[in-house]
Amino acid sequence: MSVYDIEIKSARGETTDLSNYEGKVMLIVNTASKCGFAPQFKGLQRLHETYANQGLAVLGFPSNQFANQEPLEGDSLAEHCQINHGVTFPLHAKIDVKGSGIHPLYRHLTKSAPGFLGLKGIKWNFTKFLVDRHGKVVKRFSPTVTPDKIEGQIQKLLQQK
């Protein structure tokens, strides 16, 4: 299965799939608005503003699986992130990123790019996955890796066709 075949839901519950992003570099992040890493929203937004017209898609997938740090949903979540962090990149419907109910997107991402010591599970909010223009998961970044530390790798992928 290709990453482009995976169905996702918008924050408003509309079903689509990742084929809308075919040919783009994707930075996929599991987010939580009440997390200590939430200031990374600003860095993600800066990447979105800087590189969207060159083919970068920053995609946020909220999850409430880590210390219940994402109590918001839908429009209230999008509004909170826009007001508090300036977020205009797409935030999707809340999903599970680990466990028995893991969303197919995160099953694919974690299988394609295991974490430290080969562990597949997501350990916390703001784990990031970089996907190239052909849908290949290139790299996984831990929550402590800030968006500015990924920028050079994004630039390299954007230059590739």
Automatic annotation (TrEMBL):
Q: Which PROSITE patterns match?
A: GLUTATHIONE_PEROXID_1 (PS00460), GLUTATHIONE_PEROXID_2 (PS00763), GLUTATHIONE_PEROXID_3 (PS51355)
Q: What keywords were assigned to this record? A: Oxidoreductase, Peroxidase
Q: Where is the active site?
A: 35
InterPro entries (UniProt xref): Glutathione_peroxidase, GPX_AS, GPX_CS, Thioredoxin-like_sf
Membrane-spanning residues: none
Give the record's GO biological process terms: cellular response to oxidative stress
One GO molecular-function entry: peroxidase activity
Q: Which family does it belong to?
A: Belongs to the glutathione peroxidase family.
Name of the molecule in the record: Glutathione peroxidase
Instruction: Identify the species of origin.
Output: Cohnella herbarum
